[in-house]
Amino acid sequence: MANTLLIYGSLTGNTEGVSHKVQEILRTKGKEIEVKNAIDSDLPDLTAPYETFILACSTWDDGLPASDFNDFIERISSNLPSLAGKKIAILGLGDSNYVHFCGATTIIEELFVGKMGGQKIIDTLRIDGYPDMEENQTVISAWTDKLAELI
Ligand SMILES: Cc1cc2nc3c(=O)[nH]c(=O)nc-3n(C[C@H](O)[C@H](O)[C@H](O)COP(=O)(O)O)c2cc1C
Predict the structure, then answer these.
(1) What is the pLDDT of residues 65-110, one digit of tens each?
(2) Most ligand 1 atoms within 8 A of CB, residue of 60, 64, 93 to mutate
(3) Fewer CB in a 10 Å sphere around the end CB: N or C, the chain?
């Protein structure tokens, strides 16, 4: 079993693509990481013995997480596990033309760090616009390189 699980929420595939890029970069650095869509994720994923959780989600609907991730949050919210001692990294995709730019990342941090007690180990990555743009590819690579040193 890998020691890191990345759970992503994505409606049009942008966050899904970034999640697999993060996985690819981490693998080249010898880190084993599983990637799972939030639609297939539930409480047992959070209580499994992963050391690190990477939570990746786009923002929709005036600042809310993509609906697949939002449904995952609803599934776990009646019985939130403790993530004390677990490392947490958060990345979001959004568009700064919207008022609540990458609002999902704030909601996810409040839940996974604030309420469940995970330890945030790196500044949240907020990607503005299409992830394939060169400047976004550069920030994704730099963020993931830094993350690799922390997990
Ligand atoms: C109808 C609509 C609403 C959106 N709302 C927001 C928003 O409130 N905040 C934000 O930062 N981005 C918003 N976005 C931008 C998306 O988050 C962005 O396109 C993202 O790359 C989608 O990623 P996904 O394909 O992984 O879902 C919105 C996009 C659309 C089309």
Answers:
(1) 999 999 999 999 999 999 999 999 999 999 999 999 999 999 999 9
(2) 60
(3) N
For the segment 12-31, the average pLDDT, to the nearest whole number, is: 98
pLDDT at 18 over 90: yes
Residue owning the nearest CA to atom 25 of ligand 1: 12
Q: What is the 3-state secondary structure (H, E, C) of 77-131?
A: HHHCCCCCCCEEEEEEEECCCCCCCCHHHHHHHHHHHHHCCCEECCCCEEEECCC
- Where does ligand 1 bind, in terms of residues with CB under 6 Å? 10-15, 58-60, 62-63, 66, 93-95, 98, 100-103
d(CA 50, CA 126): 24
**CATH class of the 4-148 domain in this structure:** alpha beta
131/146 Cα distance (integer angstroms): 18
- Specify which residues 55 forms β-bridges with: 7, 90
For the chain, how many helices (H) and strands (E)?
Answer: 5, 7
Q: Against a cut of 0.85, is the pTM above it? A: yes
Show me where the domains of the chain are located. 4-148
